């Protein structure tokens, strides 16, 4: 049986993905800033549903080449309101869904993201394994409390 592209991506996934109730906006530079729906996130990236009127960072389904996008997430982590800012690269778009990979993130935003992932994983060994696979934040501390 043939697999669609999304099923293949699911099998290759190295990072656990979680829902996160957050306000989400994507700054696309000259194309403007767009409110979008955050479907899930991981230590490595996010899956967004873009509004129909938003310009696509690339044409059609499959890989897109669009770097330097700014993502802002505002939500609650461990009872505290947080605002996370990340620089992302669009890696694929299909039917209004946009998958982005984190390119860089500031220390405070990364601490909030790491706490969110730690709470969802519930196992420090799984968190440590995922942190060691990251390449956008060299010199990470893998302690969930950092």
Walk me through this protein's architecture:
- With 146 residues, the chain is an alpha+beta fold.
- The chain has one domain (16-51, 60-132): Beta Barrel (Thrombin, subunit H).
- It has three helices and six strands.
- The protein has helices spanning 5-12, 107-121, 124-132; strands at 22-27, 33-41, 45-49, 63-77, 80-94, 97-105.
- Strands 1-2-3-6-5-4 form a six-stranded antiparallel beta barrel.
- A hairpin with a 2-residue loop joins strand 5 (80-94) and strand 6 (97-105).
- The protein is globular and about 40 Å long.
- 23% of the residues are buried.
- The model is unreliable at 1-11, 59-65 and 138-144 (pLDDT under 50).
Which helices and strands, and how do they pair?
Blueprint: H1 5-12, E1 22-27, E2 33-41, E3 45-49, E4 63-77, E5 80-94, E6 97-105, H2 107-121, H3 124-132
Feature tags:
single chain; disordered C terminus; 6 strands; 6-stranded antiparallel barrel; Thrombin, subunit H; alpha+beta
Indicate how many domains the architecture comprises. 1
CATH topology annotation: Thrombin, subunit H
Helix content: 10-25%
Mean pLDDT: 80
């Amino acid at each position: 049986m043939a697999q669609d592209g999304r099923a293949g991506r699911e099998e290759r996934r190295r990072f656990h993905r979680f829902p996160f109730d957050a306000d989400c906006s994507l700054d696309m530079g000259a194309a403007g800033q767009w409110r979008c729906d955050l479907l899930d996130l991981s230590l490595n990236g996010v899956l967004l549903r873009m509004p129909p009127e938003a310009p696509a960072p690339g044409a059609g389904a499959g890989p897109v080449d669009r770097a330097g996008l700014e993502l802002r997430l505002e939500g609650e982590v461990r009872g505290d309101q947080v605002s996370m800012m990340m620089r992302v690269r669009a890696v694929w778009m299909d039917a209004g869904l946009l998958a982005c990979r984190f390119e860089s993130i500031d220390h405070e935003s990364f601490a909030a993201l790491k706490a969110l992932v730690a709470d969802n994983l519930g196992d420090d060994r799984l968190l440590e394994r995922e942190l060691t696979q990251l390449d956008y934040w060299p010199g990470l501390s893998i302690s969930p409390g950092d």
